[in-house]
Amino acid sequence: MVFEGQLKRNVNHNDTYYDSLNLAPYLKTGANTIAAQVWYWGKEGFDHHSSGKGGFIFDGNFGGTAVLSDATWKLQAHPAYENSTTGGQPNFRLSEYNVRFNAQNDAINGWQQPGYDDATWPTATVKGIPPTTPWNTLIKRPFPQFKNSGLVNYTNSASLPTIAPGGVIDARLPQDAHVSVYLRISTPTAG
User: Is residue 101 within a helix (H) or strand (E), and if so which, with residue range?
Assistant: First the structure.
């Protein structure tokens, strides 16, 4: 699937890139669930020009059955993702900001699974069909997605602490790469 996808509005300040995917390998006979976790930074930087509002658009054709993102879709802000207020933030050159995942607020486990009860979630707001804002003209991604290698062990994983000593943990990558860090942590108490 798309992981850390979507191109920024850099050279083209107004229009939005989209990704084209083959979902057939992920579908099973009968009912299926389409779920997406999206992020709207809402800020500009040297390499990105914000649309001014977040949005998600889906347009699929499954054996002659059209599936479009519309007001029948549900949405929910994920309560565990927070804007980090510690450690400083990237300067004005970057459109991203530091993100904090607060596992104590991870109250919507399984939201991407078939049968998840989203009855209390609000319905999505329709923002219009392109070429309207916030996307304007849609442009197909001109080059492939980043390679997603999945989870890869740190080269020094055998020497990483099993009981937190406090302070910095030095975990080493097998090569120079664009990564999303993953640590699995168990704790006897919350917090």
Answer: strand 99-101
